[in-house]
Amino acid sequence: MDIKIKVENLRVSYGTSEILKGISIDVHKNMITGFMGPAGSGKSTLISTINRMIDFEEGIKIEGGVYLDGDNILDGEIDQVNLRRRVGTVFAVPIALPRSVYENIAYGPRLQGVNEKAELNIIVEESLRKAFLWDEVRDRLNKSALKLSGGQQQRLCLARTLALKPEIILLDEPCSGLDPISTAKIEEALNELKKDYTIILVSNNTKQIARITDYAAFFYMGELIEYGPSEKVFTNPSEKKTEDYIQGKFG
After folding, report:
1. Residue 180, domain extent
2. Mind spelling out the 3-state secondary structure of 87-120?
3. I need a labelling partner for 241 at 20 to 30 A (CA). Which of 64, 106, 112, 231 fits?
4. Which of 166, 99, 156 has its CA nearest to residue 131?
């Protein structure tokens, strides 16, 4: 099984506080990997290290390695702009641009030099289809994206990420503010997308992790407690802490 991302003994500190305490984990290509754990366990810090958004924080110290297709992305020579094109991110709160639905999707490709209307049309439609949103917005592409519902805006943000043709999609609590129907549509989209992308889903919703991930990692207080195939983690966890968390005894 291909390894897309290899994290080796990753330590991240803010000042005197160690947020990640020697994390090592392999993320498999074309799989959905779930990161779960209570608030403050280090999940979001890990994904912000993978996309190098962590560089915008002050007072950070990072040790260890994060390898994408064998290249250490923590190397100072890495092209961060290219890295963030390869690694797309969808955040918890959908932030639609104050533009039309069409322009929300076309904006990124335009910045990358795509200006042909026909090519942009194809990118917009393909991206919206992959995000399971096309049928709902095809007749309102020129209307403001801000008029979409919260669930539609979150799928729009996913489509916007897909328009940049990433290899990896990181989702940080993408369904935290959504109703069950919108959540189901996001999950349906992710199940289709894993054929072409490597996906990491951060969620505090253990039922969601159990439903749609292939691999699950449980983090607690900056440590990786357990990692393996989701079915095994949820039905026969190796660690008592994992079992307690899944059963809702803490978190």
Report:
1. 3-246
2. EEEECCCCCCCCCEHHHHHHHHHHHCCCCCHHHH
3. 64
4. 156
Residue 135 lies in a domain: yes
Those residues whose C-beta lies under 8 Å from the C-beta of residue 9, and which sit 6 or more positions away, are: 22, 23, 24, 63, 64, 65
Q: Is 41 exposed, middle or buried (0-12, 13-18, 19+ CB in 10 A)?
A: buried
* Residue carrying the six token digits 């190397």: 75
Q: HSE on the CB side for 30, CA within 13 Å?
A: 5
Q: Is 194 helix (H, G, I), strand (E, B) or coil?
A: coil
- Segment 98-136, tens digit of pLDDT: 999 999 999 999 999 999 999 999 999 999 999 999 999
pLDDT tens-digit map of 58-88: 899 999 999 999 999 998 888 888 898 899 9
Query: Is residue 148 one of the residues assigned to a domain?
Result: yes
Beta partners for 144? 100
The pLDDT assigned to 221 comes to 96
Q: Which two tokens stand for residue 128?
A: 């919206």
Looking at residue 76, what is its pLDDT? 81
CATH number at residue 235: 3.40.50.300
In a domain, 251, yes or no: no
3-state SS assignment for residue 74 = coil
**Burial profile 18-29: b = 16 or more Cβ within 10 angstroms, e = fewer:** ebbeebebbbee
Query: Cα–Cα distance between 234 and 210 in angstroms, integer?
Result: 7
Q: For residue 10, what are its two tokens?
A: 């990753």
Structural domains in the chain (count): 1
Short-list 141, 180, 134, CA closest to 155:
134
- Crossing angle of helices 117-130 and 101-111, in 10° steps, is 120
